[in-house]
Design brief:
Strand content of chain B: 15-25%
CATH class of chain A: Mainly Alpha
CATH architecture of chain A: Up-down Bundle
Order of helices and strands of chain A: HHHHHHHHHHHHHHHHHHH
CATH class of the largest domain in chain B: Mainly Beta
Helix content of chain A: over 70%
Largest sheet of chain B: 11 strands, mixed
Number of domains of chain B: 3
Oligomer: heterodimer
Number of strands of chain B: 19
Largest sheet of chain A: none
Radius of gyration of chain B: 27 Å
Shape of chain B: elongated
Number of helices of chain A: 19
CATH topology of chain A: Amino acid/polyamine transporter I
CATH superfamily of chain A: Amino acid/polyamine transporter I
Largest interface: A-B, 17 and 16 residues
Radius of gyration of chain A: 21 Å
Distance between the termini of chain B: 35 Å
Structural class of chain A: mainly alpha
Chain lengths: 412, 419
Amino acid sequence: MAWKRRLQYLWRRMLLFAAVFGPGLITASADNDAPGIATYSMAGSTYGYTFLWIVVWITLGEVIVQEMAARMGTLTGKGLTDLIREEFGLKLTVLVMLGLMLANLGTTMAQFAGIAASAELFGLTRYIAVPIAGLAVWVLVVKGSYHRVEKVLLLLSAYAIAYVISAFMVRPPWGEVTRNLFVPTLRLERPYLLAVLATVGTTITPWAAVYMQAATADKGVTPENYKSARLDCIIGAATGNVVSGFIIICTAATLFTLGIRVETAEHAAMALAPVAGPWATHLFGIGLLGASLLAASVLPLSTTYAVCEVFGWERGLNHTWGDAPVFYGLFTASIVLGAVVVLVPGLPLFAFMWLSQVANALLLPIVLVLMLKLANDRRIMKDWRNGRATNAAVTALAVLVTLAGLLMFGRW
Amino acid sequence: MGIYLSQIVGKAVWDLQGQKIGRCADILVREREHGPAQVRAVAIERGNEPELLVPAEHVASLTPGVVLKSATPPPYVPQGDEVRLRSQVLDRQIVDVEGRRLVRANDLQLVRHGAEGRYFVSGVAAGVSSFLRRLGFEGAYADVLKRIGRQPLAEVIPWQDVAPVEADAPIRLRVAKSKISRINPVDIADIITELDRQSGMALLRSLDNETAADAIQEIEPELQASMLTTLPPERAADVLEEMDPDSAADVLASLEDAHRDNLLALMEEEESTDVQKLLAYPEDTAGGIMTTEYTTIPTGLTVGQALDYLRQSASAREDETMYYVHIADENGRLRGVLTLRDLVMADPSSPVDEIMERHPITVNPTVSQREVARIVAKYNLLEVPVVDEQGVLHGIVTVDDAIDAVIPTAWKKRLPHFY
């Protein structure tokens, strides 16, 4: 009878995990959004397999940052911007909030640009695809409860399979791939370091930490099932970065080998066709569409969580429009702005996206430092403070992104 | 205007000799079930030395700088029921009684009152102006509002509505925000008078017309007029319409002529006429204190018909108390009075004329308020009809308005309410 009890125990554990599972995989999957895919394609086509080892280390960094956010959300039941306002005063809070709004709005626009590009890969005009996508995202979030929204978002994460299939289709030299995962190749030149920074910046983001913590708190994760939340972070980051790895493999095996360098996701997709057949382009397009849709839902949510937390307004997906008018209002505004900029010719989409990247790069070290302080506060975290290894890792990450930020704006 | 926590915390602390002692780190108040919380002590940070707690009795003033009465005050000994305003209240989430998130505590408003000049927490500032003050933009905001001709809204949540503060928990209000007007008007009036003028006004402005009218009626008479005049004229007229005509007339009587005429013109015709009729009588006479909201029925009805008539009657619907039903003929002359109880308990087929009191106690409009009070007390009446020489009914004086003359308003509030 012992095995039966064991099975029951395992089943219970699985149910427990299923209840908590979600935010980690969603944020990690949304990291491979339109700008993300562009970054990986660019890195893969420019540096080939030698870029792969970086993805392994970024995975580690992402797990550490997201786990910290999940742990704080679990223990305090508060969002990240909630805690920032309570502990660091209003001025800094408003600065972080404005930075996040700017960064997220630009990234949201990039998602709609991604949706437009992927639709055009299939010969569908953006003037049909973008409004439909915007409406779909809006209806999903405004009409759905947290659980329904989460289910749909998790389903969207399945876009990842498209990249796995196309990576196998291009038949990369698996031996070389494996070696480059573990053997670092470092180049001390500015474009390479910028590519590394871009990859870090698209994977470890302020918005993901904000979303992670708010969603964990919103789900009501308790210290008892925190282990499941941590597992969710690890599985999510691993899955998300395996996908990044496959995108790099895809482009390295084809474009890098032929010496074609691409800057955007749709160029990568089109460049794949002559090498790997039209199927590769279509798979790439499906992946881009899925990732962009997912990120277009999650990014505005992150903005609205942050703004509502700062002001203390009602937030969260389990409320009606009447209970949380600002939450849904801001969400709607983000979607509309994101879609309109892509549709109306002549609007400075790229200037805005650049500005949002700047905001992201400036914000990330600040948010990391604030998270470090919060996660080490005895009064807030009690016995759940950061361990020494986590502190060392996050400090190193903060220093790295600060230096990289300086590099981005300064002269080499 | 009240003072705010953000104007105190971080400021230098001096003793009376002008010696700098440190910086104000926090303010400790006493947690109380009801009413404004008294400031107990001021926490002072002094570089690397441990925090110093100075009892409120040894603080001379909090603004413009914190000044202590002595250089070496005795340390305050915490008693375990203090709340730290800066670390436990400022910037915290405020939720309503149902746990819905409303806003964050942008600032805390303090008032100084009493003979000893003690400080109290009067409320939690949660509006735009408090938010901008924290960011240092208050001046610019005030300028903009001035230019578009608006008053800054203080939006202060009265401390009375804040449940005891718990560590690590959001600040809970005792009421749902939408239900703040469901507090008894008497309590709202108390809150308004206890708050400083500006936030009292802000609270009044946030109420709907009916609640505002009820609340104003409960405020000390001296304050009523000044409260009303700070409302925009259209709004003031709306509130006056909702007030009992006698109270409205009292308030209007104490205004300047031009202002009064302006408000009367803005009011609805019907309410305006009622009030003007009342204004014609001197304030301290039966005519001045009577109300025109009373119930009449025509003569010659049976009890059953009378009850049906009342259900349809506009005057009956407006009469909030209806202790008595008055029987008046076509010329408006009072023929008799009976209590609602008599009417309800009687046989529906019997004529009203048979069971009514044909010779009720009445007063002339020119009778002094004191005399009305005496009559009401002598005959144990709940109201007395006001009737002129021709026997025409003009209004009624209810017992609470009658006894105002002999019992000050503040005392009256402690008496039980009849409604």
